[in-house]
What we know:
Elements: E1 2-15, E2 19-26, E3 30-37, E4 56-62, E5 70-79, H1 88-104, H2 112-127, H3 135-147, E6 161-163, E7 168-170, E8 179-180, H4 182-193, H5 206-223, H6 233-239
Parallel strand pairs: 3-5
Antiparallel strand pairs: 1-2, 1-4, 2-3, 4-5, 6-7, 6-8
Amino acid sequence: MLTKTQAIVLHAFKYGESRLIVDVFTRQAGRLSFIVTMPKSPRGRMKKQFFQPLSLLEMEFDLRPKVQLQKMGNVQLAYAYSSVPFEASKLSISLFMAEFLYHALKGEQQNEPLFDYVRYSMEWLDGCQSSVANFHLVFLMHLSRFLGFFPNLEGWQEGCCFDLRAGVFSKEVPTHRDYVQPTEAGRMEVLMRMDYPTMHLFRMSHHDRQRLLETAISYYRLHLPDFPELKSLAVLQEIYQ
């Protein structure tokens, strides 16, 4: 079936001398993998820059549901980043997000609101001219809404714990170990109220930001099976020391 769709590159790696295996999240068909033959001539229609992490593409291909590796037809950039590849902080955030999404979206079917959220987030990051130090935290918390386990804010009160398993705030300390103490739970409640335009107004220490990131990743690990350690996390942490 001939399919035209927007796509977000999650991961690409070399396969043999002249081919790539590229994992993408498409707007029309969800998560797909492609095998791409790269031309020897720089004038070829396939360009390596198309397949950088979180590149936004317009694609046309013959979708074969039972085939593990699809063959790519026409492809072009849907949006050319002007700052993300050239600013260390934005680049480290984008690499972290790409690795995170590569694992978080395994098996993800068509989910247009989720696709639109990721695309909007990347375009916003690219155009942002203020601090982006909290960007990845806001992205992760709001991403959980599209995956079906956004925390419930209704029970929030000063002094509550946050139950990572249930995704709720509670005055009672859970009987298991997967919860955060009231001080950090309060920071999580603040984080859940942030959005991209206002996030620069919230000042956090390096330590608080690191703890929130660790808590967010722990939350995802409880709700997504087999979520691994992230290689890009160390680079992100180093940038924001």
